[in-house]
Amino acid sequence: MKRKKKDRTGTFGAKLYSMFMGSMVIPVLIAIFCFWLYSNHILLQREEQNIQNVLQSVSRNLDMQFSESRNITNAFYIYNQVFQEAEFLNNPRLYQYYDERSRVQMESTYVMTLTKLLHTSEQNMRDVVFFPAAEGDRAYYLGMDKGLQEITYPGYHQEKWYQEALEAGNSVVFEGIHIPEYDDRKKPVEVYSYIRPIRDMNAKRVIGVVRVDVRSDMLQDTLNIIGGNGEKGLMLLQNGEYLASSACFTKEDDMELKDGRMRVGDTVYRTQSAGIEGTGLELLYLDSRSSLHWAYFYMISLSLLILLTGGVLAFINYRRQARKMVADVDRITDALQRVERGDLDISIELVAESEFRKIAEAINRMADHLKQYIEKEYLLELQQQKAEYRALQSQINPHFLYNTLNGFVALNRMGEKKALERSIVGLSRLFRYACGSQESAAVENEVGFLEDYLKLEKLKYQERLDYMIWTDEESRKKTIPRLLLQPIVENSIKHGMGDGDGHLMIYVLAKTSRVKGIGEVMILSVRDNGVGFREPEGEEERGVGIENVRARVRLYNRHAIFQCISVPGEGTKTTIVIPEEKGGDTQWSY
Hints:
Number of strands: 19
Structural class: alpha+beta
Strand content: 15-25%
Strand order of the largest sheet: 3-2-1-6-5-4
Shape: elongated
Distance between the termini: 46 Å
Helix content: 40-55%
Radius of gyration: 51 Å
Number of helices: 12
Largest sheet: 6 strands, antiparallel
Oligomer: single chain
């Protein structure tokens, strides 16, 4: 009760508080929200511009780095003797068409040209390796501190970078940061490789693949311009696959690029990209925006703190003024809830002079008048309903007795003295049950009554009539209107037998079940395999017994369902569904 009182107080108080919120707090919150949106828009614009500047600057820097590797691969096309030496390296049998001096001169030009390009490079080139297209495992290595050497690289034709170079046409293929297998220096360093196929334009065939290995220091320094804390960074992709990145990301990280967002481990980054012309590489700018979000968080937190301080002071003043008003509303609400529960003995007393006192006095007068009216109306309704219920029940008893006595007359005419005696004893039990004043009975008593009734009918119809009655344990103790099923069974015999000598089987069922959306219900069913009948069109043509049953079910439980379906030639089925609800009065033991 105390909890409900607190809730009622809070209901009226909440309305006053909503007025307070609408006049002060909400406008301030709207102003803060608009300020946050504007600040967010400005900061995002500046951030976007900064990202574009970074991408353009880094892209130009990388393009300059790759241009020196491009110059080395272009030497195979610019210098005729370099290209011829590459043809000889791919097919040594071509040496026989040149004299020794020409062969030495072509090799010397090849070595001097590429070595010069290596030494004049600012990118700290490591070496140039030519991989012939001809079958075999030999390759030709040229380092900054070494001359042209033949090396063995088993299975390079099946390497991924080699296959991609052949499929790339005249484009460039990159291999990410690694240590080459053929680097036999004491202190090998990490490099990235600029790979390009060398083609004979006249014969339109590939004579080999040239691979320029470049120290990764400058590339890594360029990408490390952004990053270091894991919130921002740069990443190079080749055909959507990882090539290199800022130091805060590694190739071993679990990465996934989808819908403009890159997931690295558990962190999701927003991305902006820029392509590097002539390389097929894509430069990604990764930004988790966490630092920017923290700035927004601090700004909003400070604003909310100021708002909360002012709101608390205003709320204290509001509570001081509204406490008395809320107490009056609580007394009125409590009285109205008592009226709702049916308690009309109320008297609201308010001490303070206010408009609420006039309301309280009006409610007191209303409760007095309502109490007098309800008492009169309620008693009248109960008397009318009881009279209707007894009138319906009284229509059944004479009708049943009349049909039973006709059956006894038939037994007497047939000379069935013993059967007549058993029938009279059964009739005495039936008559005692039917003449009782109780309006409801347990299902097991009603079923016992039906068994005696059907025994009397079977004495009359002999082999033409059989029956089966089944109830579950849960339904046997439940109550239903007394003599509810007998008119239905009588109707089955009356309309089911017909004029011939056919066999009639009657099934009586009572069970308890649970229906979704309704809850626990009791189902009563009477079914026969008789000749059936056509449903009458007018209400006045319906049988008195069935209509009485329908009316009694409706009076007993207003949520109950009554259904009678008869198909000529197939039989009749009557179903009553009674939801769980107390009804009726004292049970009568059969």
